[in-house]
Amino acid sequence: MSVAPRISQRISTRAARYAGVAAAATALTLGVAGSASACNIGEFTAKAVCDGQQGVISVTDVDASGTPATVTVFRTSGGSEEQVGSQVVKGSKEGATITFKEDWKPGATYRVHVKTDRFDVDDDVAGGVTAPAKACATEKPSTPPTSAAPSTSAPAEKPAPAPSQSSSAAAPAPSNSASPAGDSDLAETGASSNTPVIAGIAALLVVAGGGVVFALRRKGATQR
User: Fold this and answer.
1) What separation, in Å, do the N-terminal and C-terminal C-alpha atoms of the chain show?
2) Cα torsion angle, 211, 213, 217, 220, sign
3) Which single residue of 113, 140, 144, 193 has CA 20 to 30 Å from 98?
4) How far is CA 107 from the centre of its chain?
């Protein structure tokens, strides 16, 4: 047997060993990397928050492998549970967040369950969720100022002025006609407006009569 075949056989054996070691190292490295990037329950976090005035349960998945996971939220009270909702989330290195609308009450508790088809994740988020002690603020609707509507009714009519009661009102004119003979027995309530005229005429007649009498007496005395 020559020396050359022996050397070739040794080189081949060593090369096979080196290749085996390299393959094992590569497999180990890939296995560690795969375990590091695999989806696990520790990558999920959940909390109760307010989205504006709406309460929500927020779940975040920080999973670099992007494994789809089904997240189900349950409301727990007095030993019983009620499902709030279920959604599928596909995680990312930066984190993917989904929300469940829930008008949670202060101090309410929730269980968040995660299930994946890969990596056999089927577990609850550690600690669950406890709502804060203060509910989401409710904003009161602003009341717009009410403008006075124009009046459609007819303007009220001003009352007619009452008749004047002043003393300047014209009094009924006194009657100048002579009272009928049939009313002579009625009591007089006032003097006639012709009384001064009649009195003046009577005075003139008396004076005239006196003058006539005086003239007649004087004439008679002269004739004697």
Assistant:
1) 236
2) positive
3) 140
4) 29
Secondary structure of residue 26 in the 3-state scheme? helix
Instruction: Identify which of 99, 86, 37, 85 has the alpha carbon closest to the alpha carbon of residue 62.
Output: 37
Which residues have C-beta within 8 Å of that of residue 114, sequence separation ≥ 6? 41, 44, 69, 70, 71, 121, 122, 123, 124, 125
Reported confidence tier of residue 133, pLDDT bands at 50, 70, 90: very high
Strand partners, 92: 62
Q: Rounded to whole angstroms, how far apart are CA atoms 163 and 43?
A: 99
Q: What percent of the chain is helix, strand and coil (3-state, nearest 5)?
A: 30, 25, 45
Strands 122-124 and 109-115: antiparallel
Asked if 91 contacts 61 with a C-beta cutoff of 8 angstroms, the reply is: yes
Q: Burial-class residue 120 by CB neighbours within 10 Å (0-12, 13-18, 19+).
A: exposed
With CA atoms as reference, report the closest residue to 45 among 133, 124, 131. Answer: 124
Q: Exposed, middle or buried, 49 (CB in 10 Å: 0-12/13-18/19+)? A: middle
**Strand, coil or helix: 218:** helix
Q: Which amino acid is at 3?
A: V
Each residue of 146-185: pLDDT tens digit? 655 555 555 556 656 655 554 444 445 555 544 444 444 4
Instruction: Collapse the DSSP code of 90 into the 3-class scheme (helix H, G, I; strand E, B; otherwise coil) and give the result.
Output: strand
Distances in Å between the Cα of 198 and the Cα atoms of 177, 185, 194, 209 are: 14, 21, 6, 16
pTM over 0.70: no
The Cβ of residue 121 has, within 10 Å, a number of other Cβ atoms equal to 20
